[in-house]
From TrEMBL:
SUPFAM superfamilies the record matches: Acyl-CoA N-acyltransferases (Nat)
InterPro entries in the record: Acyl_CoA_acyltransferase (IPR016181), Bact_Acetyltransf (IPR050832), GNAT_dom (IPR000182)
Lineage: Bacteria, Bacillati, Actinomycetota, Actinomycetes, Kitasatosporales
Species the sequence originates in: Streptomyces sulfonofaciens
Domain N-acetyltransferase: 26-172
Keywords noted in UniProt: Acyltransferase, Transferase
Keyword Transferase among record annotations: yes
GO molecular function, one term: acyltransferase activity, transferring groups other than amino-acyl groups
Protein name: N-acetyltransferase
Transmembrane segments: none
């Protein structure tokens, strides 16, 4: 892993990019489409209405993932945009993990683990000693990934309407605990 906002775990390369960059925006659309369609299929037996999808993507532009208090990491696999993870400070000691996503056809190749490691490093560089996140009940693969890498269930840290699980990981070295 390299420093200063870029990490590599061949063939994965992860670097910070602006949320509005073409690759980041395309990955955000893919992420939101997948998680929204999952929810609608589970609860209403249909995909997300296209007008709602367009409205929600436009409303979630990633402004909270800009320096100096956040960033969006873009993972590339073999040079092609393949996944994202966002980190933003909630306070001086706590960062929040957002938009963790790997394209479906590339899952199982280490991208999720590489993104988590890069996001944890980014959170530490922002000064956070703790990383929190929320996720939904139906995102079982994500919950399994977080558990595998030491994230534990916590009480809610936000009031997100679609959140079912809240998790956290202490990022401080064991001697600092």
């Amino acid at each position: 892993m390299t420093h200063r906002g870029q990490s590599a775990c061949a063939p994965w390369v992860i670097a910070a990019e602006p949320p509005g960059a073409e690759a980041a925006a395309a990955l955000w659309r893919a992420y939101y489409t997948e998680v929204s369609d999952r929810w609608y299929l589970l609860h209403e037996g249909r995909g997300t209405p296209r007008e709602e999808l367009a409205r929600e993507i436009a409303a979630n532009d990633g402004d909270g993932l800009l320096p100096p208090t956040g960033l969006l990491l873009v993972a590339r696999y073999g040079g092609a945009p393949a996944g994202t993870a966002g980190v933003r400070l909630l306070d001086a000691a706590t960062a929040e993990l957002k938009r963790v996503f790997v394209r479906k056809e590339l899952r199982g190749r280490g991208g999720g683990a590489a993104l988590l490691a890069a996001a944890e490093e980014a959170a530490r560089e922002l000064g956070a000693g703790r990383l929190v996140l929320d996720t939904r009940h139906d995102l079982t693969e994500a919950r399994a990934l977080y558990a595998r890498y030491g994230y534990r269930e916590t009480p809610p840290h936000n009031t997100e309407p679609y959140a079912d699980h809240w998790l956290a990981k202490d990022l401080r070295p064991p001697a600092a605990l």
